[in-house]
Design a protein that fits this description.
By secondary structure, the chain is an all-alpha fold. The chain has a single domain, classed as Hypothetical protein af1432 (Orthogonal Bundle), CATH 1.10.3210. Helix content is 60%, strand content 0%. It has 10 helices and no strands. Helix 2 packs antiparallel against helix 3 (52-61) and helix 2 (26-46) packs across helix 6 (118-132).
Length: 207
């Protein structure tokens, strides 16, 4: 399916890709690009309609908050969303599109995007799949091989974990609240929260 998909070719897509390339290291840039393509593949597999431009913008900007370009006092997904919306409105993108991208990015560390539009679902799948995998959905071997050839992982599993640790260490305290029901479950039964490394180990990638 990968060979049949064409990345949107618009001025804002080209500018967004250039910004992501300029401010991200190779490992992080390859990650956000894989997220876009995994999202496109998910849309084909799931036969859902998407806005490929919104998918691309949300995917390539979703980790800006982990770069010096957009690092700030808020948790990284909020910094990423703010930087993305600011960039898009400055470039004349409609407020609706800029807000949709903001929402996709700000919500991607939870599961809310799976309950939103087809585009938002594709964004969420692309990001989730590249980080921890997604049980029940398999990418064709030929598509996976080609995507990893275009955008190698470059030690992503460890490297991304290190970026998140850096973000955690830069905040005291870290500004990310637990869901209220998670707090109740923790108090009742000692809810076990698995470390990211444990989840990453289940992903269909070697590194």
């Amino acid at each position: 399916m990968l060979a049949d998909i064409r990345m949107p070719d618009s001025s804002i897509v080209r500018q967004a890709g250039e910004l992501a390339r300029d401010v991200s290291g190779d490992m992080l840039y390859n990650h956000v690009m894989r997220c876009y393509w995994f999202g496109e593949l998910y849309a084909r597999i799931s036969t859902i309609e998407i806005d490929s431009e919104q998918l691309f913008l949300s995917a390539v900007f979703h980790d800006l908050g982990l770069t010096e370009h957009a690092r700030g006092p808020h948790r990284f997904e909020i910094e990423s969303a703010n930087a993305a919306r600011g960039f898009l409105t400055e470039k004349g993108v409609s407020n609706i599109m800029a807000q949709n991208v903001w929402d996709d990015i700000a919500l991607h560390t939870w599961d809310m995007n799976f309950f939103r539009s087809g585009t938002s679902q594709a964004v969420q799948f692309g990001i989730t799949y590249d980080v921890v995998g997604f049980p029940g959905i398999e990418i064709e071997t030929a598509d996976m091989t080609e995507l990893l050839r275009r955008y190698p992982r470059l030690g992503f599993t460890r490297g991304f974990h290190a970026l998140l640790e850096q973000d955690l260490d830069s905040h005291r305290p870290y500004p990310h609240a637990f869901h209220p029901c998670s707090r109740i479950a923790h108090a009742r039964s000692g809810l076990v929260i698995e470390d990211l490394a444990t989840l990453q180990a289940r992903a269909p990638f070697a590194q």
